[in-house]
């Protein structure tokens, strides 16, 4: 049994655009489909939430139970990125200081909301259970261990862990050679 939408069903969702070989679980929740663009060779697994302005490149995987909240500013996921299970990415966030009310049932004029674009760079891998906050730009090739809090931008080709994250070492760029070989053969 195939739980992914057919190409016809994808068209019926009303996405802004989608490419070839797009596999989106019929158990995923999509809000504001007209603001979501998806490239080629993308897989989005069960129980994911996509909401607001989202742009997804090519050869991207978003694992089960992950959520991308693009709101107005947007979430950009570049080519070859991998988002593991139970990752939450926010381009919008309530203020927790008490200077504004919170929750979606309160009109915005009573809230203090932070809205900033989030960019997940090419070849970024985000481990299970990570949280990405508004304004974070994850540099090309950076990686994040499970349960990491990503509350700011990262250096390219870095390996990062912790709450909040800290860089623990450089990441190998050998996968760029693999990408080049893959591109020649496909």
Q: Give the C-level CATH assignment.
A: Mainly Beta
Characterize the overall form.
Answer: globular
Number of domains: 1
Amount of beta strand: 35-45%
- Note the main sheet: 10 strands, parallel
Nearest-integer average pLDDT: 96
N-to-C CA distance = 28 Å
Spatial extent as radius of gyration: 17 Å
What order do the helices and strands follow?
A: HEEEEEEEEEEEEEEEEEEEEH
Short description:
About 10% of the residues lie in helices and about 35% in strands. It has about 190 residues and is mostly beta strands.
SSE inventory with pairings:
Blueprint: H1 7-13, E1 17-18, E2 22-24, E3 29-31, E4 36-38, E5 42-44, E6 49-56, E7 60-62, E8 67-77, E9 82-83, E10 88-90, E11 92-94, E12 113-115, E13 118-120, E14 125-126, E15 131-132, E16 137-138, E17 143-144, E18 149-150, E19 158-161, E20 166-170, H2 174-185
Task: Give a written overview of the molecule.
The chain is mainly beta. It has a single domain (7-185), classed as UDP N-Acetylglucosamine Acyltransferase, domain 1, CATH 2.160.10. 10% of the residues lie in helices and 37% in strands. It has two helices and 20 strands. The chain has helices spanning 7-13, 174-185; strands at residues 17-18, 22-24, 29-31, 36-38, 42-44, 49-56, 60-62, 67-77, 82-83, 88-90, 92-94, 113-115, 118-120, 125-126, 131-132, 137-138, 143-144, 149-150, 158-161, 166-170. Strands 1, 3, 4, 6, 8, 10, 13, 15, 16 and 18 form a ten-stranded parallel beta sheet that branches. The protein has an eight-stranded mixed beta sheet with strand order 2-5-7-9-14-17-19-20, with no helix packed on it. A two-stranded antiparallel ribbon has the order 11-12. The model has no long low-confidence stretch (mean pLDDT 96).
């Amino acid at each position: 049994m195939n739980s992914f939408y057919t190409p016809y069903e994808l068209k019926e969702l009303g996405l802004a655009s989608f490419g070839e070989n797009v596999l989106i679980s019929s158990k995923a929740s999509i809000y504001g489909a007209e603001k979501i663009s998806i490239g080629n060779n993308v897989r989005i697994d069960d129980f994911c939430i996509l909401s607001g302005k989202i742009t997804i490149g090519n050869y991207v995987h978003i694992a089960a139970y992950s959520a991308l909240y693009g709101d107005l500013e947007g979430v950009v996921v570049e080519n070859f990125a991998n988002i593991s299970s139970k990752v939450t990415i926010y381009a919008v966030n309530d203020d927790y200081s008490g200077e504004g009310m919170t929750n979606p049932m309160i009109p915005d004029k009573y809230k203090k909301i932070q809205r900033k674009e989030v960019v997940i760079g090419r070849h970024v891998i985000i481990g299970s259970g990570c949280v990405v906050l508004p304004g974070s730009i994850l540099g090309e090739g950076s990686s994040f261990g499970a349960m990491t809090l990503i509350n700011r931008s990262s250096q390219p080709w870095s390996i990062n862990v912790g709450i909040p994250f800290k860089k623990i070492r450089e990441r190998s760029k050998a996968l760029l050679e693999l990408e080049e070989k893959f591109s020649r053969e496909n």
